[in-house]
Amino acid sequence: MTSALHAEGLTKRYGRRTALSGCTLDIPAGHVAGLVGPNGAGKSTLLQLACGLLDPTAGRIDVLGRKPVSGSPRVGFVAQDTPVYAGLTVA
């Protein structure tokens, strides 16, 4: 069975600042997982890496057996602090 999300040694740095360090994680397909942690723990960074919005500095990540690609119709992420167009509706 393919993992929904598999990460090994995943790291993301912004210059000298490390947002995520050495994350190793495996979420099996068909399971639900929650990310819990304080501000700055790397939760949003992990989700942005999983959606292909960011590229890792080190390590690797696979989503549904493939490298994440921005714009993929298979995975989406909407952050709570991301502005959305007021006129955009589900319809």
UniProtKB/TrEMBL annotation:
Domain of life, per lineage: Bacteria
Pfam families: ABC_tran
UniProt KW keywords: Transport
Signal peptide from the UniProt entry: none
Transmembrane segments: none
Claim: Nucleotide-binding is one of the keywords in the record: no
Domain ABC transporter, residue spans: 21-90
Family designation: Belongs to the ABC transporter superfamily.
Name of this chain's protein: ABC transporter domain-containing protein
Organism, scientific name: Actinoplanes ianthinogenes
